[in-house]
Amino acid sequence: MTREINIDGLVGPTHNYGGMSFGNLASANNKGQTSNPRSAALQGLQKMRQLIDLGLTQAVMPPQERPFMSGLKKLGFTGNDSDVLQAAYKVSPALVSNYSSASCMWTANAATVSPSPDTADGKVHFTPANLTAMPHRSIEGPQAETILKAIFADESAFTVHAPLPANTLFGDEGAANHNRLSATHADKALEVFVYGREALNADDKPSKFPGRQTLEASQIVARSHRLKPDNTLFVRQSNSAINAGAFHNDVVCVANGPVLLFHETAFDDYIGLEETLKRAAEPLGFVPQMVMAKNAEFPIEDAIKSYFFNSQLLTLPNGKMALVLPADAEENMASKQFADACVSGDNPIDQTIFMDLRQSMRNGGGPACLRLRVQLTDDELSKMHQPVIMSHQKIDRLEDWVKTHYRDALIVEDLGDPKLLDEARSALDELTQILELGSMYEFQKDGASN
Ligand code: SUG
What we know:
By secondary structure, this protein is of the alpha/beta class. The protein has one domain: Succinylarginine dihydrolase (L-arginine/glycine Amidinotransferase, Chain A, 5-stranded Propeller), CATH 3.75.10. The protein has 17 helices and 15 strands. It has helices spanning 25-29, 37-53, 69-73, 81-91, 93-98, 141-151, 215-224, 239-244, 270-281, 300-306, 328-331, 333-344, 358-361, 378-383, 392-405, 418-434, 442-445; strands spanning 2-9, 58-61, 111-114, 124-128, 158-160, 178-181, 190-195, 232-236, 253-256, 259-263, 289-293, 312-315, 321-326, 349-355, 371-377. The strands form five sheets. A three-stranded mixed β-sheet has the order 2-1-15. Strand 10, helix 9 (270-281) and strand 11 form a beta-alpha-beta unit. The longest helix is centred in the N-terminal third of the chain and has 17 residues, at 37-53. The radius of gyration is 21 Å and the shape is globular. It starts with a strand and ends in a 5-residue tail after the last helix.
């Protein structure tokens, strides 16, 4: 059997509202608010629990090391870790905020994944995203590579590539700009890469907000994953969606099996796209099903505010489809009406489930941002690192761990506090034991002291 597993990012103890993502309206609007890391992590764990209850396989990706001390040390600060953190904070709280962001929680940006039916060598390929578009996220790639290599260590089944060169020509945002369309999870798919700009085309300039994913990056990922060109498509995000706040394609579009659920403004020419997808899907033996929200009924501004499309479209074990949406999508009238239309209409979506993910949402991260999907055969599933696979008991254990280590209020001023660094490190140290990951973090290796 082949199943789709969801690997959710566990929210780290330094979750804060830095307002650092230009073009991401929620991030900008909530800059400087007090965050609640404890509740953020518990909301994420609750989502994982509910997915298990839906009969799905759920795994977790541990947070990266934040504050990112080895990064700060490269900036000319000297002394022990406590000195370095305080000196950096004195120079610039915003600098420390960049190096403390818990943004790796959004694992849709951890990597692009091509499962074994799609690749020439029959292995599952991962390319960690370099996230060069946003400075606070550009430090994630190397640690994502380390973590993915720990989880998918078995080279007979998995290839974890290095992130693309950290260069704006190759800006890569991972699975948030990648859709897979197929008859079932076990079948060969069309891999649809969605890019926001052509970096090598000097005339391709942003009109308001930047397109983060470049065509060039998508092409490299497709090549190194050894995808069949006939089954690989490169489609452009519309500038109007990007300028309305769709900094990633997954803010206005989600796919699962043969279904593509999207907003009318997501692509410039959705009619042309449908024709292209149909033609490309024919040899693979399926017909893509396009479910589209019309802008006249569900304006793009409401789609961005509610984050309707940043939902998880899931095929349940009984073959039915569920849509997991943020609670915010139930509160916006246009969004709620479209959700109701989806379940009552002539389309494959049977059920909507709303979840409170407000802590992440205030930084522009909905249900789909928080998960990385990987389609695995039973054999491949058995080859991944088993302790990251979630059960109710493991979630209970992680909830206790969060309650022990996490603060319930954090403001930017707290980020320069060496006590927070200590707390974060003891939390992560214990987490590596719970998830049996060994000494994975740098602070565990070099015995750094405060
Ligand atoms: O990259 N927000 C993230 C949200 C990522 C959402 N992911 C997907 N759409 N897949 C981003 O813009 C805000 C951090 C801050 O401002 O503190 C942030 O990084």
